[in-house]
Amino acid sequence: MSHTTSPTARLMDGTAFARRMVEEAAERAAALAARTGRAPCLATVLVGDDPASVTYVRMKRNRCAKAGVQSRHIALPADTTTAQLVDAIGELSDDSGVHGILLQHPVGPHIDERAAFEAIAPEKDVDGVTAHSFAAMSLGMDGFASCTPGGIMQLLDHYDVDLTGKHAVVVGRSAILGKPMGMLLLGRNATVTYCHSRTTDLAAHTSEADVLIAAVGRPRFLHGDQLKPGAVVIDAGYNPGNVGDVDFPSAAAVASLITPVPGGVGPMTIATLLTQTVDAATRQLGAAG
Q1: pLDDT tens-digit series, residues 191-218
Q2: Structural domains of the chain, with CATH
Q3: Could you give the C-alpha distances from 151 to 29, 61, 106, 109, 176, in angstroms and in order?
Q4: What residues pair up with 235 in beta bridges, in sequence order?
Q5: Is residue 173 part of an annotated ligand binding site?
Q6: What is the pTM of this model?
Q7: Of the residues 70, 124, 125, 127, which is catalytic?
Q8: Catalytic annotation on 157?
Q9: Is 60 an annotated catalytic residue?
Q10: 223 and 251 in contact (C-beta within 8 Å)?
Q11: Residue 55, helix vs strand vs coil
């Protein structure tokens, strides 16, 4: 397949759009605080001291401050048990001063992560990780989207990508990214194919994708020669060295639109988290509108 005549892809700038989303969330948070005397509050829960997780939590708390969202940080030791973590999350679920709960993952192999997620009250699941939220995403009900898939949908809309009738291929099937991503795309009338580590002849599927979502967690895993010319390529991977799951140079020569790493999906994830925290606070404080 020759790529010499293909146009260079247009970049999908997540940084600029996310900044606008955070500014809008900040305005809504300020208006909510003026009406109710209470600012939205996001509780972040971190088990252990994994350096990447510590960095992510610090970044999220900094963004919270910019958006007028209070943050409460719960740091638990690495040897925390599932029962102890469930109890801590249960207390936050019952605390009327907390409007959103974020459990930073991974939590460690000795903890039942699903049990911990399910301890989050659905109305405070602003990260969209509970079974309730997944059902809402799948059935088109009112609820919170998983933040990365939700952010990707916002970005696709921002760049006027019409999903109706398009073939969308999701590479990856994690509970908080791949699976909900496919459900959100299906809800927008795309025809969805899930691919994963057991898929045979991956390129046969990716080369048919009008919209490709890469979410495998393997650096430069997908290349331009595996893509359909003119495809929209969303790289939801983030690997050491600021590298995504897509080989950017070869993919950009084939795609029509592509997200950079960093600066594409990542900022949208955090902006979606903050937006949904303000949404949650607005509903809980009875001050919608």
Answers
A1: 999 999 999 999 999 999 999 999 999 9
A2: 37-121 (3.40.50.10860), 147-266 (3.40.50.720)
A3: 19, 18, 20, 28, 12
A4: 214
A5: yes
A6: 0.95
A7: 127
A8: no
A9: yes
A10: yes
A11: helix
